[in-house]
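Design a sequence for this backbone.
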């Protein structure tokens, strides 16, 4: 049984003081729900204060990116060694990183391997853009990303990581994919590809989130799908009460 997992990606929002206020506001509500795994992924500068506030709780912390090298002349980058002790998860290959910062499946694969080697659990983002979607290339694109991003891993490693299916045309646009559409991509193109490459046990074990304009008003419809194990939440995770409500709805939906 895969434990549902809702993670909030704060992106480039929240100063240190704002992050502290947000965590304090949402923490009591998050701790009330134990059947769903929860995580928040703040900007790097917020990680120490957020990690300190969440210490002793069951709410996990994630980073939004990392470099694959432990150290070196990579101005502006953060290494896996710098994240150890601060977070449990790290988002890798988000579409905004691919679009604005030139990340490729090759660099995503390097980061995934480095994260796993340093005890960090990757949340690997895959998904097609609008043109690819409208051209009927979704399956081809997503299967290719999964194959390249997971290259060289063992079935055991794949079982432990998280994948987030984020159709790029639905991120930050207010336009979510239908639950049925997301379910089909996750079931056939992501879980199906993993089954072929790493075996059915790994495919059945890996948790796969949906991301793209999820909020309290639509999370139930996504969580009711058998192959959708959670959500990678953007804007709604910056609103304490809405994020808590999403967790509660996810718990009710997956337990019914």
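Sequence:
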């Amino acid at each position: 049984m895969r434990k549902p997992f809702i993670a909030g990606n704060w992106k480039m929002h929240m100063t240190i003081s704002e992050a502290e206020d947000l965590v304090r506001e949402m923490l009591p509500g998050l701790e009330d729900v134990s059947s769903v795994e929860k995580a928040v992924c703040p900007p790097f500068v917020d990680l120490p204060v957020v990690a300190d506030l969440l210490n002793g709780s069951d709410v996990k912390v994630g980073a939004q990116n990392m470099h694959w090298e432990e150290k070196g002349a990579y101005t502006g980058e953060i290494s896996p060694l710098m994240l150890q002790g601060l977070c449990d998860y790290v988002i890798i290959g988000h579409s905004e990183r691919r679009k604005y910062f030139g990340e490729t499946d090759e660099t995503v694969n390097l980061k995934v391997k480095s994260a796993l080697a340093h005890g960090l659990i990757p949340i690997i983002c895959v998904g097609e853009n609008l043109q690819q979607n409208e051209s009927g290339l979704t399956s081809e694109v997503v299967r290719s990303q999964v194959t390249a991003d997971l290259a060289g891993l063992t079935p055991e490693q794949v079982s432990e990581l998280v994948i987030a299916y984020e159709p790029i045309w639905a991120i930050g646009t207010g336009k979510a994919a239908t639950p049925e559409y997301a379910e089909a991509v996750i079931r056939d193109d992501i879980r199906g590809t993993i089954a072929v490459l790493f075996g059915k046990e790994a495919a059945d074990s890996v948790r796969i989130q949906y991301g793209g304009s999820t909020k309290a008003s639509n999370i139930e419809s996504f969580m009711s799908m058998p192959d959708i194990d959670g959500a990678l939440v953007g804007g709604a995770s910056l609103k304490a009460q809405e994020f808590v409500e999403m967790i509660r709805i996810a718990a009710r939906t997956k337990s019914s």
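The chain has one domain: 5-235.
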